[in-house]
Amino acid sequence: MKIRKLGVALVAAAMTLGTASAFAQDTKDSDPNRMCLRSTDIRSSHVVDDQNIQFEMRNGQKWTNKLTDKCVGLYINDGFSYNGSPNGDICANLQAIKVLHSGNVCLLGSFHKS
After folding, report:
1. CB count in 10 Å sphere of residue 51
2. Residues 6 or more apart from 100 whose CB is under 8 A from it?
3. How many C-beta atoms lie closer than 10 Å to residue 69's C-beta?
4. How far apart are CA 81 and CA 11, in angstroms?
């Protein structure tokens, strides 16, 4: 019986976490160090410089991510690729990007509303 209760509790916790990350872009007081953006909701991205990427969402909101360090070649090459998490989220301080042409790998930092 204890195992079943634990299983139900884990499922409920997972559902709560999934909901929190899915709507993080709409929450004004989200922790910018832990929030995620749904990749399906991103309309476009713009490389601002070697340490900042702006994401424009389908709903018109804009989020800027400040990478943890300067990412050499990001601005010059003006492009990057990434693999989203299994649920399609792009998460602060967990997601790596790869600069096109140079192959440099850099870590996303925190998100801030632009």
Report:
1. 17
2. 77, 78, 79, 80, 81
3. 11
4. 32
Amino acid (one-letter) located at 77: N
Q: How many CB atoms lie within 10 A of CB 97?
A: 22
Query: pLDDT digit string (tens) for 62-111?
Result: 999 999 999 999 999 878 998 877 788 999 999 999 999 999 999 999 99
Residues 6+ apart with CB under 8 A from 90: 36, 37, 38, 39, 42, 55, 82, 84, 108
Which three-class secondary structure string do you get for 36-94? EEEHHHEEEEEEEECCEEEEEECCCCEEEEECCCCCCCHHHHCCEEECCCCCCEEECCC
Q: Report the alpha-carbon distance of residue 88 to residue 76 in Å, rounded.
A: 27
Q: What is the pTM of this model?
A: 0.72
Residues written for the chain: 114
Structure tokens at 98: 């790869």
| Sign of torsion over alpha carbons 39, 104, 75, 64 | positive
